[in-house]
Amino acid sequence: MSKALATIAMSVPQGNIESYVTVVHSVPVLSSEDEKELATRYQQEGDLNAARELILSHLRFVVHIARSYSGYGLPQADLIQEGNVGLMKAVKRFDPEVGVRLISFAVHWIKAEIHEFVLKNWRIVKVATTKAQRKLFFNLRGAKKSLNWLNNEEVKAVAEDLGVSEIEVRRMESRLNSRDTAFDLPNDADEESSFAPAAYLESPETDPAQKLEQENWENFNQQRLMSAMKTLDERSQQILAARWLSEDKATLQELAEKYQVSAERIRQLEKNAMNKLKSAMS
Fold first, then answer.
1. How high does pLDDT run on average in the chain?
2. What b-and-e string marks burial along 234-270, b requiring 16 or more CB atoms within 10 Å of the CB?
3. CA-CA distance, 155 to 127, in Å (whole number)?
4. For residues 147 and 98, is the Cβ–Cβ distance under 8 A?
């Protein structure tokens, strides 16, 4: 679909569908002669105004088709918008010389776009990937008269009618009856009575062996640091402790006032002490 043709698509409002429906139904339906004339102008001359009239006059049919997919729990505005995309693709490919009306040709393209949207958005995990599965998906939704599981006779009838195995029918029915689960619990959820997969994932921190190894390593490094600190003179130990080991770390100027030296001298003492620590720990 060209960018120029795409720009003439009508956007569907998310909040007020009924107003949109009223508008599209106010557009007159084209006669067979007018439709053929407009389609010829678009195909032979690239007249986008002609394409626009063809699309606007058929938006009411898109609404009618999209409403038949309301049982999937998806926004009606999105279904209509996807159907409009299919309509535009049909207008681009429509041959007025074949002798059929545009709507008869466009139904396939409108439904194809809506089907693709439903399959991508109805579940997080795709329920149908092959052509046969897609056919089974939509036909099985229509064949189920209630929320109850199909009995053996109904499964057999659906399988024979759609030309698939009974196993495939059962598998698709299971997918249709499944529900997506959020990975994490909502902020206001009760953790004791609610379920989320994230709560059941194994955490490396709960491995006793790894936890013990980490604690041993931290204790070993702590002992090495304390041993290395003892190799320093008392003033250097105090400076390092005040600068790095205390929660309320002292500034160079504060230590300079304490020891009656310059801040630069404290920096030099700190640097020398750190070098001695590195050598002792290595």
1. 76
2. eebebbbebbeeeeeebebeebbeeeeeeeeebeebb
3. 18
4. no
